[in-house]
Each structure stands twice: as C-alpha cells, then as structure tokens.
Write a structure and sequence with these properties.
InterPro entries: P-loop_NTPase (IPR027417), T6A_TsaE (IPR003442). It comes from Biomaibacter acetigenes. The protein is an alpha/beta fold. It has a single domain, classed as P-loop containing nucleotide triphosphate hydrolases (Rossmann fold). Helices cover 25% and strands 26% of the residues. The chain has four helices and seven strands; from the N terminus they run E-H-E-H-E-E-H-E-E-E-H. Strand 6 and strand 7 form a beta hairpin. Helix 1 packs across helix 2. The radius of gyration is 14 Å and the shape is globular. The structure holds adenosine-5'-diphosphate and magnesium ion (MG). Magnesium ion binds next to helix 2. The site of adenosine-5'-diphosphate (ADP) has 19 residues, from helix 1 and helix 2.
Length: 151
C-alpha cells in the first residue's frame, strides 16, 4: 500500500510524524530515505512526541544511534556518515529490534541490514518549504497503520 502526503512547513511534517508515532508499538521499524534537509529528522521529532517523549531530539548523524525512554522507547538511527553497514551493526543495531520503535534515516544506504518487514518513508523536496512524504508498506501490519494515518 502507498500513501502520499504533502507538507507546507516543518510544523506539518512534525504533526504527521506525531500522528504516526501514536500508532506505533515496540518492534516497529521505519526506514526513512530522502535528501539532506528533506525533513527526516523533523518527522522523527514528531514521532517522538507521538510516543510521549518530551526530550528534545537531536540528529544522530554523529552518534549513529540515540535512544529515548518512554513506555514505548525510541531508537533513532542515522546511516549518513557510515563508511560500511558493519559500523551500524557494531553500534548495536540489532539490540533495538524487539523493545523499541526504530527510526532509521538514510535506510537506503544499509538496505542489507534491514528486517524483512519495514515501513518505507520517502521524503522529497519540492521547494523551500514543501515536501512530499510517501509511505510504502508491504505487509498487512503496516497497511493497517497507514490506513489509520491522517494529518
Ligand atoms: P533531514 O533530517 O532530512 O536532513 P531535517 O529535518 O534535519 O532534514 O531538516 C529539514 C529542514 O528543512 C529544516 O531546516 C526545516 O526547517 C526545513 N523545512 C522546510 N519546510 C519543511 C517541511 N515541509 N518539512 C520539514 N522540514 C522543512
Ligand atoms: Mg536528519
């Protein structure tokens, strides 16, 4: 299933992330792809809010994995600076699969590590403030989540 949204500013992207965050549970894996500045981190900030996380989230570009405690905790990962996928494995990639919601930016760079069942989210820059955010699910689990998702 595919679902496409267009957002007109950062706040709308965060709101969409927040709406999705409210629908997620431990074990869910979101694979984010799209250019620098397309809004992946802004969207993840919304997801954190939707999960009930009050901390300010920062980009894991340099830390590779940031984790946030909540009833359903969040592992926020970024593959942008990796030289090899093994660097993400060594950072503990597989330790988060069951108990966390995992959000991975630049997931297309480490596709060989991903579990079979992920929700792909593609960010595209239309102009300075407009983005498309396209969701692609391949399983009924994520189809059901997408059916519930509205801005
Ligand atoms: P990424 O993580 O994909 O590199 P960020 O979320 O860090 O992107 O940055 C997105 C940048 O684009 C921010 O500076 C934000 O203010 C700006 N922006 C402008 N319009 C939007 C929009 N519709 N959605 C998200 N970010 C937007
Ligand atoms: Mg980012």
């Amino acid at each position: 299933m595919k679902k496409i949204f267009e957002t007109l500013n950062q706040n709308q992207t965060e709101k969409l992330g927040e709406a999705l965050g409210k629908l997620l549970k431990a074990g869910d894996f979101l694979a984010l792809a799209g250019d620098l500045g397309a809004g992946k981190t802004a969207f993840t900030r919304g997801i954190a809010r939707g999960l009930g996380i009050h901390e300010d989230i920062t980009s894991p570009t340099f830390t590779i994995i940031n984790q946030y405690e909540a009833p359903v905790p969040l592992a926020h990962m970024d593959a942008y600076r990796l030289k090899t996928p093994e660097e993400l494995e060594n950072a503990g990639f597989y330790d988060y699969m069951e108990d966390f919601v995992v959000v991975l930016e630049w997931a297309d760079r480490v596709e060989e590590l991903l579990p079979g069942d992920v929700l792909w989210i593609y960010f595209t820059v239309l102009d300075e403030n407009r983005r498309t955010i396209e969701f692609q699910s391949q399983t009924s689990h994520y189809d059901n989540i997408l059916q519930e998702l509205n801005l």
